[in-house]
Design goal:
Layout: H1 3-19, E1 21-29, H2 36-49, E2 54-58, H3 66-69, E3 88-91, E4 94-98, H4 114-126, E5 133-139, H5 146-155, E6 160-165, H6 169-184, E7 189-200, E8 207-208, H7 215-223, E9 227-233, H8 235-243, H9 247-250, H10 255-271
Helix pairs in contact: 1-4, 2-10, 4-5, 6-7
Length: 273
């Protein structure tokens, strides 16, 4: 088989996979450390708790964290009857695939340039036997480089983008670029999530603004987009991620879990109208 034929077959497999997914949502951030993967994981869990069939695709090739956060670190990828591997089943309604599933050690670096990363992302969609899904949540690395660009180009019809930022103005300098990226790529923006918005004192219940700033509100006003939720800073979020458990399920009565449920409800409302 020549390269043109192989490319055509791969494109056909990508199209077949995409046809099994009702809605595709990409999670973006302008800079690292704002909790984008945490938002991706908890939005995916929240949608799954609504009874949606959800796929979680980690396209952060160099720094994949989804495997640890959903408790599948070290789990093997299993093949199917037609030879294509299946995504790892996290729970009854949630499936995940990540670069971490294909490396021998979590300490092993991926030293790749752009073309190799794009090829791997394409394989995530062409050579993985995904089930039929209501939602595919795509966790991308910070910025507007190879990975988010590749996903948008390969899928071709992403239903929406969610921008994650922390409150301080400096974080929004980069987040605003992801807004412009989404607009240029014709991806509808579902809204902004303000993460680590406040810290609720466990002793007195007072809300403390650790990261002060009005950048999220200003960006939302400037670009006429919604703020989907303001997630408080909660040590239990970190603990749940490190243990590979679902924060929104384990701490379902917490303020943060309630915000995540509101965010997932808004996503379904905006997309499924």
């Amino acid at each position: 088989m020549n390269s043109a034929e192989a490319q055509k077959q791969q494109d056909e497999r990508v199209a077949a996979t995409v046809s099994k997914i009702k809605h595709k949502v990409i999670i973006l951030s302008g800079k690292g450390g704002v909790g984008k993967s945490t938002v991706s994981v908890n939005v995916a869990y929240s949608l799954a708790e609504q009874g949606k069939k959800v796929g979680l695709l980690d396209v952060d090739i160099h720094g994949p964290s989804i495997a640890k956060m959903v408790g599948i670190e070290g789990e093997a990828i299993l093949g199917s009857k037609d030879g294509y591997p299946k995504p790892i089943k996290v729970n009854e309604n949630l499936y995940a695939i990540t670069m971490a599933s294909f490396t021998s050690s979590p300490d092993e670096p991926i030293i790749w340039r752009g073309p190799l990363k794009m090829a791997m992302i394409k394989q995530f969609l062409s050579d993985i036997d995904w089930p039929e899904l209501d939602y595919l949540i795509i966790d991308s690395p910070p910025g507007t480089g190879d990975e988010p660009l590749s996903v948008v180009q390969i899928i071709g019809n992403v239903d929406g983008a969610i921008i994650v930022s922390t409150p301080q103005d400096v974080a929004l300098l980069d987040a605003r670029k992801t807004i412009k990226f989404s607009q240029k790529m014709n991806v509808p923006i579902l809204g902004i999530v303000e993460n680590m918005s406040t810290f609720i004192c466990p002793h007195c219940g007072e809300a403390i603004d650790i990261f002060k700033g009005l950048g999220v509100q200003k960006a939302a006003k400037d670009y006429n987009i919604d703020i989907l939720g303001n997630i408080p800073l909660d040590p239990d979020v970190v603990a749940a991620g490190d243990r590979g458990t679902a924060f929104v399920s384990k701490f379902k009565e917490s303020a943060g879990a309630q915000v995540y449920k509101q965010i997932s409800a808004q996503i379904t409302k905006k997309i499924e109208l």
